[in-house]
Write a structure and sequence with these properties.
The protein has a single domain, classed as Arginase, Chain A (3-Layer(aba) Sandwich). The longest helix has 28 residues. It is built from eleven helices and eight strands. Helix content is about 40%, strand content about 15%. Helix 10 links the parallel strand 7 and strand 8.
C-alpha cells in the first residue's frame, strides 16, 4: 500500500471525507501512489465550451462519492491525490479562447491566432511533460483530467520516455486523427494523430468511435494494424445479434499489448451520461460497459501505465456530468491500481 498506517489511522471511511481533497481522501502528492494532474484547458474546442471547468467540477463532486468497492474492498488505500489546479493555465486558456472566438468570427488575422495558439499548446505540452516526468521518476503512477482532449499529449510523451513500448486504448465518439483542425496543430481533434508520432506507441485501439471524417477513416484503413477501431455501430450490431459484452471485451483486449494507456473522452459514453460535453454524439457506451472493459484490462495481466479523462463539461446548477466524471475517474484509478498489483481484486462479487 502507498500510505503508512499512521496516515490512514483515524480516517473515517464512512464519513464525507476531507474538504478540498479528491474523493475526500487524506493523501498528498508525497503519500499518494497515483497522482492526478488537472489541466483546465479548452483552447481548441470547436463546439460547446465548458470542459476547462471539468477538473474543478470533478474535484468538488468527488467528495460525495462513496468509494467502497465490493470487488476491491481496500481500494481507497491505494492513495489518490489531485495536484493543485493551476490558475495560470486557466488564465491563459481564457485569454486564448477569446482570441479564437474572434478568429472564427473573422475579426482577427487567422495566421496570427493559429501561431499564438500553436505556440501556447506546445508550451502546455512541455509543461505537462515536465511535471509528469518528475512524478514518474519518483515512482508515481500519473493520470490526467482535462480540459479538452488535446491535454494529455505531454503525459503521453513523458510515458514514452519511461516505457519503450505501450499501446493506447481510446474510448471516444471521435477518431481524433486529424493532422490539424482549423489550423490548430494541437487540436482536440488531433490528439491521436500527434500521439502516433511517438515510436513508443505501438498500437492504438479505438472503441466507440462514431463521428469521423473521410481522411480519418482512410488513415485507419491504411494503418497496417497499428490502428484498430471498434466502431460503435459494429459493436451495437454484435450486441443486438446476441454477442455478449464480455466476449467483445475479450476481442478488444486481444488487440492490446502488455502495457496500456487509457485515453477516455467522456463523449465515448452515451450522451445521457454527459449531456453537456463539448461535442456529444448519439450512440456510445453504457457506463458499466466501460467499467467492465477497464476491469477486463486490469485482470488480463496487462498493466495500465497511465490514463486521462477529458471533455467533462459541467452545466450551471447541474452536477450530473461532474458526478459521472468523478465516478469514472474513481474506476480508472482503482483498476489501474489493480493492474499494478497494488490492490487486491476479488474476482467474484460477494
Amino acid at each position: 500500500m502507498a500510505a503508512s498506517d499512521q496516515l490512514l489511522d483515524g480516517f473515517d471511511v464512512n464519513g464525507p471525507g476531507l474538504p478540498g481533497k479528491l474523493f475526500g481522501l487524506p493523501f498528498t502528492p508525497d503519500t499518494a501512489r497515483l497522482i492526478i494532474l488537472p489541466v483546465p484547458w479548452e483552447v481548441t474546442v470547436s463546439y460547446h465550451k465548458g470542459t476547462a471547468q471539468g477538473p474543478e467540477a470533478i474535484l468538488k463532486a468527488s467528495r460525495q462519492l462513496d468509494f467502497f468497492m465490493r470487488e476491491i474492498p481496500d481500494a481507497w488505500k491505494l492513495g489518490v491525490c489531485m495536484t493543485e489546479i493551476p490558475a495560470s493555465l486557466k488564465e491563459t486558456n481564457d485569454t486564448l479562447c477569446v482570441l479564437v472566438d474572434q478568429y472564427r468570427a473573422n475579426q482577427v488575422s487567422p495566421e496570427l491566432i493559429t501561431q499564438k495558439v500553436n505556440e501556447a499548446c506546445n508550451n502546455l505540452n512541455i509543461y505537462i511533460h515536465s511535471i509528469a516526468s518528475a512524478f514518474l521518476a519518483a515512482g508515481k503512477i500519473v493520470g490526467l483530467v482535462g480540459g479538452d482532449h488535446s491535454t494529455p499529449l505531454g503525459l503521453l510523451r513523458a510515458l514514452a520516455g519511461k516505457h519503450e513500448r505501450f499501446g493506447i486504448l481510446q474510448i471516444d465518439a471521435h477518431a481524433d486523427l486529424r493532422k490539424a483542425y482549423e489550423g490548430f496543430q494541437y487540436s482536440h481533434g488531433s490528439i491521436m494523430h500527434n500521439a502516433l508520432k511517438s515510436p513508443a506507441v505501438s498500437k492504438l485501439v479505438q472503441v466507440g468511435v462514431r463521428d469521423f471524417c473521410e481522411a480519418e477513416y482512410q488513415l485507419i484503413q491504411r494503418a497496417s494494424g497499428r490502428i484498430r477501431c471498434f466502431f460503435d455501430d459494429d459493436l451495437k450490431s454484435r450486441l443486438n445479434t446476441g454477442t455478449s459484452w464480455e466476449s467483445i471485451c475479450t476481442d478488444i483486449i486481444k488487440e492490446l499489448p502488455q502495457k496500456v494507456y487509457v485515453s477516455f473522452d467522456i463523449d465515448g459514453l452515451d450522451p445521457r451520461y454527459c449531456p453537456h460535453t463539448g461535442t456529444p454524439v448519439p450512440g456510445g457506451m453504457e457506463f458499466y460497459h466501460a467499467v467492465d472493459l477497464l476491469k477486463a484490462i486490469a485482470t488480463s495481466g496487462r498493466t495500465i501505465v497511465g490514463f486521462d479523462l477529458n471533455e467533462v463539461a459541467p452545466a450551471v446548477n447541474d452536477d450530473w456530468d461532474a458526478n459521472v466524471g468523478a465516478r469514472l475517474l474513481w474506476e480508472l484509478s482503482c483498476w489501474t491500481g489493480v493492474s499494478h498489483g497494488l490492490l487486491t481484486h476479488s474476482r467474484s462479487k460477494p
